[in-house]
Amino acid sequence: MPELPEVETIVRGLGPRLAGLRIRSIRLLDPALLRGGRAAELKRLEGATILGVRRRGKMILIDCERERALLFHLKMTGALLLESPTVPPGKHVRLVLKLQESDRELRFRDIRKFGFLRCLASGSGCSSPELDALGPEPLDLAPGAFAGLFAGRRGSLKPLLLDQRFIAGIGNIYADEVLHRARLHPRTPVQHLDRRRLRTLHQAVISVLEEAVRRRGSSIRDYADPDGSPGEFQKFHRVYGREGEPCRKCGTAILRIRVGGRSSFFCPACQALEGNAIPFDFVAFFSL
Fold first, then answer.
1. Residue finishing a domain among 117, 132, 147
2. What domain count does the chain have?
């Protein structure tokens, strides 16, 4: 599933090229794509100008005139592509948005058909069950606010990082990369994270996500940017997908285990599981 860096890459690729263009027509090729609404809502956007494109978590919002927005969730294999109208849409294209004053049209392609679209009212801020359930954006969090999220939490660290209600945008790839950079085992008890470890974890989140955005995301299977080009960050993964290969830090073979029902890649030397970390004093941290 495309995560924060991939979705951010798509948004940055689409935003400058869609803003200011008018929607000529919207063809919904697969009615199952549209969630919680009717196709007539899409038709009302024909002739409206696109105001901008933005990201929230792993979702893409295309803001339009008439106080409406299109929300896309790519899920496992979804992609938003700018393609020439002279090229016939492939069999996996589920929606075509034709644009005036452009030699490209926007197509939503989804091989496995898990992705979805919502047409939302945006006059007083977009709201949907998916948006309303999201936690904060990791790149917007200061160290203290980030640490505050962990107050009173228990359980293993990796599943918590994957919980979109806790923090938005981090998925399996980047959770593994963040934990390796922070030298934390995926099963580290959250309640054992002290002040130093939380600061290190926050720094790892920022550095991994920012580097992945610079490298235009990770192309593991289906992900591509709006022009169909792959990302490059997969070439720099330290642990994800590298079972049996040497750790880029110490040379120890990377292991794969199941944590919270998900595959987790880690270095057993760099990320040794520690059970005696000092509990974190949140009052003392916020008083610094």
1. 132
2. 2
Please give the structure tokens belonging to residue 241: 């997908």
Give catalytic residues, as residue numbers.
Answer: 2-3, 58, 262
Q: Which of residues 112, 132, 152 is at a domain's end?
A: 132
| Whether residue 145 sits in one domain with residue 125 | no
Looking at the fold, whether 178 and 260 belong to one and the same domain comes out as yes
**Which amino acid does the sequence have at 220?**
I
Question: For 1-41, what is each residue's pLDDT tens digit?
Answer: 899 999 999 999 999 999 999 999 999 999 999 999 899 99
Domain range holding 19?
A: 4-132
Same domain, 121 and 170: no
Instruction: For residues 143-148, give the mean pLDDT.
Output: 98
What would the pLDDT profile of 66-117 be if each residue is shown by its tens digit?
999 999 999 999 999 999 999 999 999 999 999 999 999 999 999 999 999 9
Answer yes or no: is pLDDT of 279 > 60: no
pLDDT tens digits, 204-228: 999 999 999 999 999 998 899 999 9
Task: Extract the tokens encoding 245.
Answer: 């290969």
Q: Are 271 and 143 part of one and the same domain? A: yes
Question: Do 221 and 278 lie in a common domain?
Answer: yes
Is 247 within 8 Å of 253 (Cβ atoms)? yes
